[in-house]
Write a structure and sequence with these properties.
Helices cover 45% and strands 13% of the residues. It is of the alpha/beta class. Helix 1 packs across helix 4.
Amino acid sequence: MRLLLFDIDGTLVDALGAGKAALGRAMLRVYGETGPIESFEFHGKTDPAIVRGLLRAAGWSDADIEGGFEATWSAYLEALDDELEQRDGSVKTFPGVEPLLRAVEADARFAPGLVTGNMESGASLKLGAAGLDRRFRYGAFGSDSETRDDLPPIALDRAERAYGQSFDLGAAVIVGDTPDDIRCARANGARVLAVSTGRHTVQELREHGPDAVFENLSDTPDVLRMLTDE
């Protein structure tokens, strides 16, 4: 079986800015400020790295930032639940996501999971809002490590326990929408399928050297051919 490691925001789900809004609310509650949240690039980063980057830009020390992490995630999850509820019925999957997930779930060659910068509970809320709850048996999250490159080996370990067999990370395919997803795959010897449903165009993603780039995931047979290539 081959690991398929999906990013969430910009790849599977359009949460309509709920995560950013919720994180801003949580940071104001815990730290009293958000730093340059409107200009900061969220995509491709873990949630802890986003908070650290925003507050470093505002002059905070790492020790003071970390001291507020626990309270921040509690406030964030409460705010995220509220933000998603305000978008009731509007949070959607991107084109082709549902048919592709059905296809790989039914195919014994694949073990689909998650590699995402979201905190695990935040990932569950976003997936649930888009109708994708309980679709993945394993994953690695921003709550596991602030550094995105650390996540694929964590996902590998959890997949091996979930499926009761060994996997080869070098045969895995990471599916994501940012240059950071591509870099993360390369850092772990994995293959990578980039999709331009997030902030980056096909050409921008292609410049970072993924194995394949798609405008979206709607051509299920073509995407499956890439996922099964050696």
